[in-house]
Design goal:
By secondary structure, this protein is α/β, with parallel strands linked by helices. It has two domains: 107 residues, no CATH class; 104 residues, no CATH class. The chain is built from eight helices and ten strands. Strand 6, helix 5 and strand 7 form a beta-alpha-beta unit. It is globular and about 60 Å long.
Length: 235
C-alpha cells in the first residue's frame, strides 16, 4: 500500500495492546511511518476475547493498567533520542531505538473500545477515539463521553479525533424511510455521512466487507469513486 499510494492515510483498527511489546511494535509502526512518509494512524485497544488472550499468552488481569503504561512506554520509545523506561509492566534500558517516526511527536494514537477507561485513556494518553460500526443514533452519546473525559482531564475536546468505521451498502434505488444508516442510494449515504459529521465524527472510514456478494475490488473502487466528493463540493 505504501508503495503505490501518495496521500491516503494508513492504519489499523485496532491492535490489541497486551499482545505486543511496546519496543517491537514501536519499531514496526515507526518503519511504516517512515515508508509512508508520515501517513500512519495507530488504533489501539484491549480486545474482548478471553480465548484470544489465552492463545496469545497474554494476561487478562489488570489489562487496563497495563494499557496505560504501554502507551507511556510507546511514546517514550518514539520521542526520546535514547529512551529509558521503567514501570510495573514494562522496562526498557537506556538504548538507541530506531527508526523513529516521521510524524512529530509521533503518529496519531487512537483508542478503541466502549468502557469508561477507554474514554479516559483516549482523552489523557492518546490523540482521540476510534469506534466500530456505531449506529448513527448512538454516535452522539459516544462523542459526548469522549468530550466529557477530555473536559475532566483539562483537555480541549476539539483537539481529539473521533474516528468511526461505517459498514455500508450502496443500492441502486433509495432505501426510503426506516432504512439502516449507510444503506441506500448515493444521495442517502452522503446524507448519512453528513449527519455523522454533525454528531462530532471527524473521520468515517467506509467498510464494504459486509455487503452481499461479497463485492469485488473493482466494484468497491467504483463505489468509492461514486461516493467521493466532486471538486466543486470540496471547494
Amino acid at each position: 500500500m505504501t508503495a503505490v499510494t501518495r496521500t491516503i492515510r494508513l492504519g489499523a483498527s485496532v491492535l490489541v495492546i497486551p499482545f505486543y511489546s511496546p519496543v517491537v511494535l514501536g519499531k514496526q509502526l515507526a518503519t511504516l511511518d517512515v515508508l509512508s512518509r508520515g501517513r500512519l494512524d495507530v488504533g489501539l485497544g484491549l480486545g474482548w476475547s478471553l480465548d484470544e488472550y489465552e492463545a496469545a499468552g497474554a494476561s487478562w488481569a489488570r489489562r487496563g493498567a497495563r494499557a496505560d503504561e504501554f502507551l507511556q512506554c510507546l511514546k517514550t520509545v518514539w520521542t526520546e533520542e535514547e529512551p529509558e523506561f521503567h514501570g510495573e509492566f514494562y522496562s526498557v534500558p537506556r538504548a538507541r531505538i530506531e527508526p523513529r517516526p516521521v510524524q512529530k511527536p509521533h503518529p496519531p494514537l487512537l483508542i478503541g473500545g466502549y468502557s469508561d477507561g477507554v474514554f479516559r485513556r483516549a482523552a489523557t494518553l492518546a490523540d482521540g477515539y476510534t469506534g466500530g460500526n456505531i449506529p448513527l443514533h448512538e454516535i452522539a452519546a459516544v462523542v459526548a463521553r469522549l468530550r466529557g473525559a477530555a473536559e475532566r482531564a483539562g483537555r480541549d475536546p476539539a483537539t481529539l479525533a473521533v474516528v468511526c468505521r461505517g459498514a455500508f451498502t450502496l443500492t441502486p434505488h433509495p432505501g426510503g424511510p426506516g432504512r439502516r444508516a449507510l444503506t441506500g442510494s448515493i444521495e442517502e449515504l452522503r446524507e448519512d455521512i453528513r449527519r455523522y459529521a454533525e454528531c462530532g465524527v471527524t473521520e468515517l472510514f467506509l467498510d464494504p466487507n459486509f455487503q452481499p456478494g461479497p463485492p469485488s475490488p473493482e466494484r468497491v473502487l467504483e463505489q468509492m469513486e461514486a461516493l467521493a466528493p466532486s471538486r466543486r463540493e470540496e471547494a
